[in-house]
Design a protein that fits this description.
Elements lengths: L2 H31 L10 H25 L6 H19 L7 H18 L12 H4 L1
Helix pairs in contact: 1-2, 1-3, 2-4, 3-4
Length: 135
Amino acid sequence: MNPAVKKWIVIILATIIGYALMGLLITAVQEWIFHGVSYHKSSLPVLLTAGAGTFFSAVAGGWLAFIINSKKTKISNMIMSVLVVLETTWLFTTGRADGPLWFDIAAALSLIAGILLGCNLSLFKRSAAPIDSVL
């Protein structure tokens, strides 16, 4: 198989899997744990806790996408970020978003920040100089 085609297949799969994980975790936080989160109906502690859980869901999705890409490219994370913008725009323009525009923009920006943070985590990375080579 052509290496460029193989690379793009991996990027597309990483994007789909990372975005799906993020969506599943966001659903778990907002729907299963809090039984629905709404700007107008939820208390401030619920909004803050669900917001943090949503942010960490984006970190997990971004991290998984980056790992699937073998830590070689952040293109999947960039595509996921564009998808967040498109989805937020669609939700707001069709009236499916519950909160004011500033709230939905802040939520989208936190997702994008989480996705991009996910590809910069150093979990499971070996340090530049293994400890035995230093000693």
